[in-house]
Design goal:
Shape: flat
Strand content: 5-15%
Distance between the termini: 77 Å
Largest sheet: 6 strands, mixed
Number of strands: 6
Amino acid sequence: PRLPEKLQGRAVLIKLLSKDLSPVPDADLYDFLTAAQTAFSGTNQALIFAIHKSCLQLSLFGSGSLPAAPVFETLSRAFPDCGLYFCAGDAVSLPKYEKSIGQANRLLRQLFYHRGQHLLTAKDCLPLRESAQSPDLRPLADCLRARDRESARAFVRRFIDEEILGKRPVSPERAAELCFRVLLQLLPKEDHHLPEFSRDSAAEWLASCVFLERMEEELLGELELYFDTEQPPANATLIDRVLEYIQARYQDRELSLNQLSRKFYVSNVYLCIRFKDTVGKTFVRYLTELRVQKAAGLLRTSGEKVNSIAEEVGFDNGSYFTKIFKKEMGMTPAEYRRENQNL
């Protein structure tokens, strides 16, 4: 809009997170955009909302300092189930509005280091340092070979304190790359499929974690999983490990080829082809048969309701489970139970 140049302008980028601190998907931001506009309808505040960089972008116009806090409080009340993080540039004259946008962008990038702070202004902008050298991960490899859990955990914490934070933190992108290199040390190695460093994978991890603390938590969680999981034999293949993972987590209704490909750092296409070639059936067929067999065992040996068994083995609902079970076994779960219970 054409506004008088004597007015001030202030740019704010608002990062929306769900209760588990995951970023709100871009597709859902349009609903939040409408809700944000509704929250300020009927007021005399000059606000323009848009969507930018997976965030709500708010442009404030008026006179004076244009405080962001009242806007933050209003939106916090409007979205009580979300975590809102405001990255606010300075209030500047309209011809200098791009400066405010630039400040908001820099703060959004540095949100990685501000998990506990929901309203960031230009004074919170951190001086970042460059870190070009590759980290020495041999001490971690030694801890893993020795199965020394405590030393490995101490290494990860020290690594983050020294390599990422130090006297001045590195850029969030570099921090994600460094943590991703540590993560790769925890993956089983295969003769013909050694995981390689990927900046794209590190960037995706950064986008999903949002904060350094979350990334550290996930890294330490993977470390615990490494020590809690029996190490596969030296000749174990990728599919051996995938099958072991499926056997342990078939009850998870979210288990999918996408989840497995992310877990084992291979492409969907590669995993799909390898799985079919090795197992002789698709992942979906294998998982369906496994769940039906587990359900059949429960029908024979327990008195649980069919709906409860369906949910226990990973099906979304009882009616879908009954349809699949009949297709696989030639009879309904109730019929199967009558003919086979306690056999």
